[in-house]
Amino acid sequence: MKRILNVVEYNKASSGIRLANYFLDFIMLYAINYILSILAYFLYEVTSIEFFYYYSNGNIVWQLFIGNFNYFLYYFLMENYLGGRTVAKYITGTKVISTDGTKPTTQQMMYRSLSRIVPFDGLSFLGVNGWHDSWSDTRVINVKNYYAEIQAKSEIEDLGKKEFA
Questions:
Q1: What is the dihedral angle through the alpha carbons of 27, 84, 92, 74, rounded to the nearest 10 degrees?
Q2: Is 43 helix (H, G, I), strand (E, B) or coil?
Q3: Helix H or strand E segment including 128
Q4: Angle between the 60-81 and 15-47 helix axes, to the nearest 10 degrees?
């Protein structure tokens, strides 16, 4: 278990911002799934490959499987390769970091993304931290406030040090 820095905990994004992130990312995911379904339909018409038919017209179990797979991919790829941010996190000025203040590892991002698929993960935020935060040792922070506090602490530590020209 990683150590938890106070500066990370003090600058966690509010529940309202987290909810906004959820809805904005949900809209993005819905749009992506809609576009992929249309693309799959056209690919089925051109190639007659059954996979594309099931992707766009499959039963509920297949749709849940594909939906969860796309859900995982969206969060994993976005957060892992865009510095802990999704489209919604860019809009709201938040990002994911490790509880020790470092950039999350690929393994942490994978745990975080897989944890989101667990039913009722959204309800886990009625407590202190959600499951996908707790299980992956990550937090969503307000970027502006976090870096301002880090800067202030750095300036305080530099007081009294001699400057050399």
A1: 0
A2: helix
A3: none
A4: 120
141-150 residue pLDDT tens: 999 999 999 8
Q: pLDDT at position 51, please? A: 83
Q: Which two tokens stand for residue 48?
A: 């007659």
pLDDT digits (tens, 9 = 90+) for 26-85: 999 999 989 998 998 999 999 988 888 887 777 788 888 888 999 999 999 999 999 999
DSSP structural state of residue 12: B
CB-based contact 11:141 (threshold 8 Å): yes
> If you search the block for the tokens 């919604």, which residue do you land on?
88
What stretch of H or E contains 142? strand 138-142
Nearest alpha-carbon partner for 94 in 150, 144, 24: 144
Type of residue numbered 120? F
What's the rounded Cα separation, in Å, for the pair 47 and 30?
A: 25
